[in-house]
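Hi there, hope your week has been kind to you so far. No rush at all, and the record is pasted right below.
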Amino acid sequence: MPYRFDLHVRLEAVHTMHDLQAVRDAVRAEVHDPVWFLGRQWQLGEHRGADAASPALVRATVTETPVTGRSNKPDENPRVTPAEAIIESEPEQWWTIGRRVRVGRALRSAVPAARRGDPTLQLTGLAAPYDGLNGRVLDGLALYRARTSLGLTKVQFRAQGVPAAEPADDWQPRRRLVLRDRVRPESAGRVAAARSDELSNARRLRRRAAPALVAG
């Protein structure tokens, strides 16, 4: 006789926080920038979707903060280069795994023979699927860092496409800034910004493209 087992599973959201205000805020599903959100939906045509609702009336209070760069150079001017690319850039960001391998192989013959087996100049610590390269291939980034002791020049690296200058590191680990933009009905569309120097998961904002937003 066959047996039949009916298994019913119920998914239920369970929160671990006992802060009722935090729960209310989560349920409200507030967005960081509602005006941008609506504009983006309009730009992509989402308001014309068959299953989409169109806003009947939108009131917004808009404020603007000029964003200035470190200099007028194109790669540091947010009017030329997108601000995200300037703010989020970091030293040695050019060195992807593929470029480290390519530069290491290209300059292998220029490295003194006695140093080619130096473990400090080889790739290490790479996770799968690149772990097979650990200890077997010269690391282009390691060669660049040790170029003086290896007798290598920046010209050789420039020939491989290595940038002439690295982006400056404006990240201040002791300074953190959190912007909590909440649009509430009772605030009539006004945006409130709260600043904190203690939260560990704060957004990484740098002085390079947003000096007005860095906690001072």
User: Anything to note?
Assistant: Confidence is low (pLDDT under 50) at residues 177-216. The helical segments are 20-28, 34-43, 83-87, 97-106, 140-145, 147-150, 154-158. The two ends are 76 Å apart (CA to CA). The longest helix spans residues 34-43.
